[in-house]
Design goal:
The protein is of the alpha+beta class. The protein is built from 2 helices and 5 strands, in the order ααβββββ. The two termini are 28 Å apart.
């Protein structure tokens, strides 16, 4: 799948979930394959509203059977790592949290 195809597919999924994005936001949907070249399996599509060293506000779109690789946000310049909050707007997401012992659904 090309980046343009992924962008269009992500925009269609946002529309189906009732999430309104502007034409400019649609054009700027980021495609992240983490350099692995396996977007159908590993990656995500991102609408960025705000992204600073400490705070981000984004819509993340994962296609069916697509996963985001394990990662962390370490402390930065003496400040704690970036905080993340997730809200599933459409579908089901499996989130693995270190130390939680179970999958959070």
């Amino acid at each position: 799948m090309t980046e343009a195809e992924a962008r269009e597919r992500a925009a269609a999924m946002l529309d189906a979930a009732g999430i309104v994005v502007t034409p400019r936001e649609r054009e700027q949907i980021e495609i992240a394959d983490f350099g692995l070249g396996r977007l159908d399996e590993i990656g995500l599509q991102i609408v960025v509203y705000v992204n600073t060293d400490r705070v981000c506000a984004k819509e993340l779109v994962l296609f069916p059977h697509q996963s985001c690789p394990e990662h962390r946000h370490p402390p930065f310049e003496g400040e704690p790592g970036k905080e993340e909050t997730f809200r599933v707007r459409y579908g089901i997401v499996h989130l693995h949290v270190e130390g939680a012992g179970d999958i959070v659904r």
